[in-house]
Sequence to fold (815 residues):
Amino acid sequence: MSVWRGLLRRPLAMAGLVIAVALVAVAIAAPLIAPYSPYEQFFDGLTLEGAPLPPNERFLFGTDLLGRDLLSRMIYGARTSLIVGLLANGIAVLVGTAVGITAGFLRGVVGAVLMRFTDLVMAFPALILAITIATLRGPSLGLVVLVIALVNWGPIARVVYAETTSLAEREFIAAERAIGANTSRILFRHILPHLLPIIIVWGTLGISTTVLFEALLSYLGVGVQPPNPSWGNIVYDGQSYFQSAPWLVFFPGFAVAALALSINLIGDALRDLLDPTLRGRH
Amino acid sequence: MSRYLMPLLAGLILASPLALADEPKRGGEITIIYRDDFDSMDPAIGYSFQSWTPIKAVFDGLVDYKPGTTEIEPDLAESYEISPDGKTYTFKLRQGVKFHNGRELKAADIKYSIERTCNPKTQSPGASYYTGIIGCQDIIDGKATEASGITTPDDYTVVFQLTEPNATMLHLFALNFAFAVPKEVAEEYGEDFTHHGVGTGAYKMVEYTPGQRVVLERNPHTDKDGRPYIDKITLQFGVEPVTGVLRIEKGEADTLGEIFPPAKYLEVSQNPAVKGRFLTVGQLNTNYMSMNFNIKPFDDLRVRRAVNMAVNKQRLVQVLNNRGTVTGQILPPAMAGFNPKFQGYPYDPEKAKGLLKEAGLGDGFTTELYFQNVDPWPRMAQVIQQDLAAIGIKVELRGLEMASLFGTAGKPDGAPMALTEWYADFPDPSNFYTAILGCGAAVEGGFNWSFYCNEDIDARAKAADALADPARAQERIDDWSKIMIDIIEQDAAWVPLFNSNRFSLRSAKLKGDETIFTDIISQPFNFEAAWVE
Fold:
C-alpha cells in the first residue's frame, strides 16, 4: 500500500519504526537477552558503603540501589512499560475518539449526555479513583492499564468532540450530505481522516507521561509491586540519587524518551500520509 | 589514624588563647529547615520528632533533661520529693516564673495542664501516659473534669497521688504532654492554640504562618547560667531535605529538622568541607520485623526462630549505606538495660531450614510482608524477601502509605509480617515494652504488631515498673534487661534488625558542644544550648 511505501521514503519514520520494533522485540525476548535475573541482589553489586556500582564490564548499565543488574531490570521492565504505554494509551485513544466523534457528530441530547459524562470522569481525581479500585480489586498490571485508560480518554474525547463539531459544519460535509452519503461514509471517509493529526499527537504525547504515571501508581501501591521492575519505578526509585548515581535515572529515562520519540516519529509520518488536506503535496 | 589525633588536636586548640572564639555568646539568628508544617505546636498534641524540640523551646515542664544527656533535673520545679511508698510526688515551684503573656505561673497551671492532656476533648496522644495519676482515667472516661489526685496546697506547691508506684513517673513529667500552658490562652484559642502557643520557655513564638514558618525569639526573662544564647530561630517549612542539605552546605540555612535524606548520605559523609559538622548520632531506636502470633505459621516458635536466623542483617545495613548498627535485641545500645553480650540469633540459613523442617514446613510457605512505601522501607523489604526465599519462604511484598500500614498491621489478623521501628518517647526500657510488646497493646489499633502476649513476661514487667525506689534503680534496670532478652530468646517475638543512626549536619556558624548535636532527647539539637559565631 502507498502508506507503507511512504513510510519507507521517510528516514526519520523508519528510524522510529526500527526503534519501536526493537523495543518490542527486547520485551518479548527478555529472558533470552537479559544477562542476569532482574531480581538477584548481587553480593558484590554494591560497594562496601552500599553505593550502587557505575556501569562496568560485568554490569553494563551499572547496578541499582540493591545491587541488582540495571540492564536486566530494564529489559524486563520494558514489558511493563510497553504494555502500559501502548495498551493503556491505545484504549484511551479508541474510547476517547469514539465518544468524542459520536457526541460531536450527533450532538443534541446524546452529545450533551456523553460530554457531561466525560466531564464527570475528568473531574474525578485520578489518584483517588486508582486507590479505590486497587483497594477493591487488589493491585495488578491490568488495573494500572485500566486506570490510566480511564483517566486519559476524557481529554481526548473533549478535543475530538470540539474538532468534530467544527468539521461537521464545513461545506464539504454539507456537500457529502447533499449527494446522499450515509453517516458511516461521512464519519470514516471524511471526518476521521481530518481528526487523525490530533489523535496521533495526543496518542504519542500520552506515552511518556503514561509510563511515569504508572510509576506513581506503583508507588501508591496500585500497580507493579517491588521487586518487579518497570522503567517508571526504576526512575522513581533512583531520582533522588541523581547526583551520586546518575546512571539510575539516565538509562531508564533515555529508554522512555526513545519509546516516546519513536512512536512520535511514526505518528508524525502517518499523519502526513493519511491527512487528506496534505495528500498529494510535498 | 586521624580518628585518634583529632581529639588531641582539639584539646590543644581548646587550651590555646584561640579558645576564646569558641566561648558561648549571645545573639545571632539561625534557620532550621523542615519539609512540612508541624503536626502541632500544642504541647498536649505535638507528637512528631519534628515538633518535639520546638515545643520544648517554647514550653517547660516540672522537670527536664540536662542538655545533651538523659539526666533529669528540676525545671519549673525548684525541688521535688517522692514519698517512701512511691505513690506521692510533691513539687515545689520556682517563684517568679512568667508566661510569655506576663502572667506568673502558679501551681494551678500545672494541675490544669495535665488535666487538659487527660481530657478527651483535647485529643492528646499522650493521655494514656498519665492514667497512673488518680483521677486522670475518670477524666478520660468523661466522669470528671478535674483529677482528684492532683492537689495544690498553695500557689507554689503541687502534689500528685498515684494509683501505684511507677518508676518512670519523672520521665512522664518531663514529656511535652505535661508541659505548662496558661489556661486563659489555651481556652481562648482552643484547637487553634497550636498557632498561638504561650508558654514559659526560653523562646517566645512570635510568628506562626501555617505552611511557611515559625519564628521563635529569645525570652529575655530566661537565664539558665547564660542560656539560651541565640536571639532568633526561624523554622522554615516547605523545603525538600535534599534541597535543605544543599542550602546548609552553602551556609544559607543552619541545620535540618528532618531525617537526613538517604540519597545525600554518601556524598555528604565524604565531603571534607563539612568535616566535624557532619555527625553520626546513636538514637533510642530499633528497627524490627514483627511476626503476628495470630497468623499461621507464626504461632510456631520454630518458625519465628527460623525467620530470625534467615535474615542477613549485615547485608541489610550495607544496603542502607551502613546508616545503622546490626542488633539482635530489643533495646538500643544507648538505652539503660541494653546487654552488650547478648548477640541474639546468628545468621544461619542452614539451621533455619532445619527448624522449618521440624515445624513440618520443609517445603516452605507463602506469606506477606507489610511496610511503609517510603525509601528505605521498600529496599529493606526486598532484601528480606530474597533472604527468606533462600530458606523456602515466599514473601509477597505489600507496600502501603503510613496510615494504611498502621490500620492493617494494627488488626489482630492483619499483617503476617511487618517492618517498622520504634523511637523511645523517654529514655527508659519500659518504653520499649508497654506500647509495642505488652499484652495491653495487643489490641486492634495498638502498636504490638506481633500481637505478642506472654502473661508471665507481662507480670514481670509490671513488677519492674513498680520498683520506684531510686535506691533500687539498678535492680529494676537489670530486671528489664532480662525481660527484654527473654522475649527474644524464649519467644522470638520479633526479628530485631538494627539501630538506625541519625545524622546531624550544621552550618559553620552554628556552634556548641558536640553532645548538644548528638542529644538523644532533642533533635536536631537543644535550642537553648547552642550558639552562633
Chain A touches chain B at residues 39-41, 43, 46, 48-51, 65-67, 219-221, 225-227, 237, 240-241, 243-244 (CB under 8 Å). The mean pLDDT of chain A is 85.
